[in-house]
Amino acid sequence: MTVLVAAVRDSSVVAWRNLVTIRRNPDLLFGAVVNPIIFVLLFA
Predict the structure, then answer these.
(1) What's the structural domain count of the chain?
(2) Could you tell me the CA-to-CA distances from 38 to 8, 32, 33, 42, 44 in Å, in that order?
(3) Which structural domain, as residue segments, surrounds residue 11?
(4) What is the mean pLDDT of residues 19-40?
(5) In the prediction, which pLDDT does 9 show?
(6) Would the pLDDT of 37 be above 80?
(7) CA distances from 27 to 3, 7, 38, 41 (A)
């Protein structure tokens, strides 16, 4: 198995775990969406 395949697989596992956490706590989704927008508006 190449390093690239292992990195993609590990990244997908971490992303899946974060999505499961966001499903249980929707406030995290709000923070994950709103914070980048606020930073772009402040510093752009």
Answers:
(1) 1
(2) 30, 11, 9, 6, 10
(3) 3-43
(4) 89
(5) 97
(6) yes
(7) 35, 29, 16, 21
